[in-house]
Amino acid sequence: MNETLRFDVLVVGGGLVGSSTALMLARRGLKVGLFERRYCGAQASGVNYGGVRRQGRLAEQLPLAVRARRIWDRLPELVGTDGEFVVSGHLRLARSVADLAALEAYAQMANPFGLDLQLLSGPTFRRRYPWLGAAALGGSLCPGDGHANPRVVSPAFARAARAAGADVREQTAVTNIVYAGERFVVEARHDSGAMIEARADWLVNAAGAWGNTVAGYFGESIPMEPIYPNMWVTEPLPYFIDHNLGVYGGGIYARQVARGNVVIGGGRGSGDGEYAQPLTETTRTVMRAACGLLPRLKDALLLRSWTGVEGSTPDDNPVIGFSRTTPRLLHAFGFSGGGFLLAPGVGQVLSDLVVDGATSTPIDAFSIERFGLARGG
Ligand SMILES: Cc1cc2nc3c(=O)[nH]c(=O)nc-3n(C[C@H](O)[C@H](O)[C@H](O)COP(=O)(O)OP(=O)(O)OC[C@H]3O[C@@H](n4cnc5c(N)ncnc54)[C@H](O)[C@@H]3O)c2cc1C
């Protein structure tokens, strides 16, 4: 062993979930280590669409989403950058009368959580959004939602965690973990070949799409599949899209950044669980549908397309909370395409669990228990 380390809490994975957890714990005075096998924020957390959106989430995610959303207002003070976070509002479009009815039902469910959803249709909608195509019949606006630049936000959380005292190690892959009575013994390998042994009282599994490898050390891997959301960006266009846009039922989302580029997502790319690539055919099909909603995109030049690897669970909810096999092991993975907004809130919740032993945010729906017996490990 080239180095032996000792922590109160060791976080595995330097995506936004792991980095925000390390930051929150370090700010509460704990000795925190974070091991990231590549670079912090280089996986899903740094390549996602950038939607900071509560609207459209499952009911059980709303309390956590609301808590997380409050943190986004404090990014400059917390991580030293606003991360290009814009409170643009999120407009969820309806393409049929049935969609409009579903948006109305969703608003009734979600508004008690403080989302302030406003339904728009008919001539009012048309007058307010002359740049939307005939395919959009109406929509639901969540004024407090927005979007941000994941490439800026995610590494900033890791830098802030380091500045707060966490020992953040990149190019450091966790290769084995055992729970040895009172504490975790973690083996890791730096890209240089150096071997590290770390002992920690608590372990946080924030390994994203690879969370099952860590959960598997403790006999509790879950049914999770990798997904590869397909994304692309246009050349800069004159500014016209006021909001972060989505559609009821999913499948198309778009936002325009201050420089004028329109970031669009929809459909899936392909991958092997480790690496991923966008699919031209997906981009072409979704872009055609997007032009029905946003006719001004018709002649736009596409500059780049990409995707990333994300872990998706059967019920689209993440696993957040205590292990059922091992004391002081916390899981936070499987965010199923929706972890960007949530991650800062997840960091706070996990720091509550470590420091206070409980959290005021309801997380029972995210328990690993819901998957029943372990599928090996
Ligand atoms: C293309 C795309 C678009 C998306 N769009 C949105 C969106 O608009 N809004 C939204 O809310 N969500 C979105 N998501 C989902 C969101 O990005 C994820 O839910 C979130 O980033 C998950 O964060 P994470 O920290 O769990 O995972 P990650 O960012 O993947 O971080 C996990 C980290 O663990 C590391 N790791 C794994 N195994 C080990 C090991 N053995 N040792 C050390 N390190 C390890 C990995 O290298 C990785 O850096 C999107 C995802 C993708 C891929």
Strand-helix topology:
Elements: E1 3-12, H1 16-27, E2 32-35, H2 44-47, E3 51-52, H3 62-72, H4 75-79, E4 90-94, H5 97-110, E5 118-121, H6 122-128, E6 138-142, E7 146-147, H7 150-163, E8 167-169, E9 172-180, E10 183-190, E11 195-205, H8 211-216, E12 225-227, E13 229-236, E14 244-247, E15 253-256, E16 261-268, E17 270-271, E18 276-277, H9 280-293, E19 302-306, E20 310-312, E21 319-322, E22 329-333, H10 339-356
Parallel strand pairs: 1-2, 1-11, 2-8, 4-14, 11-22
Antiparallel strand pairs: 3-7, 4-6, 5-6, 9-10, 10-11, 12-20, 13-16, 13-19, 14-15, 15-16, 17-18, 21-22
Helix pairs in contact: 1-7, 1-10, 3-10
The structure holds flavin-adenine dinucleotide.
Flavin-adenine dinucleotide binds at residues 12-18, 35-38, 42-45, 47-51, 173-174, 206-210, 213, 229, 231, 307-308, 310, 333, 335, 337-341, 343.
